[in-house]
Specification:
The chain is mainly alpha-helical. The protein folds into 3 domains: about 5-120, no CATH class; about 150-255, no CATH class; about 265-490, Intergrase catalytic core (hpI Integrase, Chain A). The protein has helices spanning about 65-80, 90-105, 110-120, 130-140, 155-175, 185-205, 210-215, 225-245, 270-280, 295-305, 310-320, 325-330, 375-395, 415-430, 435-450, 455-460, 465-470, 475-490; strands at about 5-10, 30, 35, 40-45, 55-65, 265-270, 285-290, 335, 340-345, 345-350, 355-360, 370. The protein has a 3-stranded antiparallel β-sheet. Strand 2 (about 30) and strand 3 (about 35) form a beta hairpin. Helix 10 (about 295-305) packs antiparallel against helix 11 and helix 11 (about 310-320) packs across helix 15. The longest helix is centred in the middle third of the chain and has 24 residues, at about 185-205. The chain is extended.
Length: about 500
Amino acid sequence: MNTGTTYKRCYCRDRDTGKPLGAQCPKLRRGNTWNPHHGVWQYQIELPKAADGRRRPLRRGPFDDQTSAGDVLRRITEALAVCEPGDTTNLTRAGDIIEKAVNADRQVPDPATVRLLLYSVEKLDKIPDVAGLMKMFMTSRGGSKANSKRKKIKEGTRRSYQGHIDNHIVPNLGTIAADRLTAGLIETGMLDKIEERNTLIDQLRASPDPEKRRQVKGMRKVGIATQHRILATLRAGYNWGIRRGIIPPIYPVKHVEIAPEKAPKKLIWTDERVAEWKLTGTVPQDAIMVWTPEQTGIFLDHLIASGDRLYGLYHTIAYRGLRRGEGCGLHRAEYDSRRKKVTIAWQVVQHGWEARLERPKTDGSYDDVPLDDGCVLALENHLVQQRRERLAAGGKWVENGLMFTTKTGEMLHPADVTDHFYFRLEQAGLPPIGLHGLRHGAATINLAAGVDMKVVQELLRHKSATTTSNLYSTVLPDLAFDAAEKAAASVPRKRHLKAVS
C-alpha cells in the first residue's frame, strides 16, 4: 500500500524566470540531508482513485517539523488500512472521507471512525454481540475532532457510560447477539442479578459474623436510580447502532419492566431520630438526612471555635446552597462584595480521583447567587486569611485565582473537602449527613424562615419551583410543625389552658 512521503519545499524563486523553485531549491539539502534552516515540511500521498477514475494526489503543508507532517501521513495510511486488500469500493469511499476532512482543514478520522463510516450491517461478517456493539459505540464517543458535535460528551458522562458497560452490561449480556437481545433477557440476565447482589449485601451486612460483614465492607448496592441509568446507557448504544445501520431497528430496553425511578426522601434530623441514632447508631434507610437550622448553627459554631481555615466555604454552602464543586471552583473575580453576590462560573469536577476545573453543566447552574451580610463577612475574613497564607508561603504559593485553596494556593480536591467535613462533623457530635446535605440544609433554613418556594428555587438554581417542592416535600411537614409552635408561642397570653383530667 502507498504510504506516502514527507519532504521539504520553500518559496524561493528562479532569478531568471521568477518561477517558484519549490522542492527543487538547492538550499533545501546539505548533501544527503535536509537543511534544518531552510524550507518547510510537507507530505504527499496518492489517495485511491475517485469513483470517476481520476487520480487523487494529496499534498499538504506547511508543517513546522517532519514529525508533524509524518503524524498526519500516518493517520491517513492507518485510515486506508481499514479496508480489505482489493476492496476498491471501500478504498474509494475511504479516500473520499480523508479528502473531505483534509479539504475542510479537519483532523483525519481515526481508523475506528473510518471503519464505522464504511461498514454497515450488510457488510459485516456477522452482527456483533452486545459487548461488540457497546465497544463500537464507545469508540465513536471518543471525542476526536472529526466527530460531530452530537458525539462530544463530557468526560464524566463518558466514564459513567463505561462504568455501566464494564460492570453490568458486558458481564451479564455481552455474549448475546445484539439483534437477539430482548426485554426478558435484560430483566433476567442483568436486573435480576443486580437485585440478587443487593440482597446478598444486605444479608451479609446484617450478619452477626464479623467476617461476613467484612466481605461487603465498601461495597455499594445498585439502587433503582442507577439501574435506570444503566438501561439508558444500553439504550444509547442501541440507538447509535440502529442509526449507523449496524443492527436492525429493535428497541429491547423500551419494553423492560422496572420500578419507577424515585428520588430519595429528604428527612430532617428531628429530636426523635437523633435519639434513636444515639441509642442504636442506625440511620434511616433510603433517605437523605438533613440538619435542622439549629444543627447547622452548631456545626458552624464548632468551626469558628476550632479556627477552621475553610469556615467561609462551609458557611457559604450552608447558607447559600452551593454545590461542593461550585464552592471549590469559586474564583475571587466572581465575588462582588459591593453588590453582595457570587457568580457560579466554574466547578471542580472529580473524574475518578482526578479533579479539574470545568464550566457548569447547564445554563441554569451558571448564574449569580445573592449573599447575605453574614456570607459577605465570612468571605471577607477568608480573603484576609488567604493573603496571610500567601505571604507565609512565599515562592511556594500557586496563584490560580481561586477563592478557596490549600495553604499554598493549590486547588482543593473535592474528596479532601468532604473528608474534612466528616472530621469536623464527628468532632461536633452531630448526626451524620453528606456534605451535599449542607446544600439541602440551605433550603430548609430558607423554608423555615418563611421564604417563598420560588425564591428558594432561584437560590438553588433548579429548573422550576415544582422541582424544589418535590425535593423538599418530605421536609415541609417537620418545618410546618415548628412554624406552628413558633407562631403559637408568639401570641402573648396571661392564662394558659391546662389538661382536663
